[in-house]
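TA notes, week 10

Several of you asked for a full example with nothing omitted. So below is the full record: structure tokens for the whole chain, then the designed sequence directly under it. When grading your own attempts, check the secondary structure regions first.
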């Protein structure tokens, strides 16, 4: 990750509506999958702050951020 932290990103596909906000905020981390739902392309593709902003911007709170176990 760009700030040296390791992060675990979880997406609740029962909640995700494919708003694309996460892809706009953190395009190096998120994309849309074949079902037009959020998908992680690189969990270390941006700073933790940016990833958290993307998760917080999700209108249905489908993205959860946590620390990755070593």
């Amino acid at each position: 990750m760009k700030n040296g932290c390791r992060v675990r990103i979880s997406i609740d596909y029962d909640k995700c509506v494919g708003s694309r906000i996460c892809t706009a905020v953190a395009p190096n981390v998120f994309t849309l999958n074949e079902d037009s739902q959020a998908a992680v392309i690189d969990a270390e593709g941006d700073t933790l702050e940016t990833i958290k902003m993307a998760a917080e911007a999700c209108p249905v709170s489908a993205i959860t951020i946590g620390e990755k176990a070593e």
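The helical segments are 21-25, 48-57. Use that as a sanity check on your answer.
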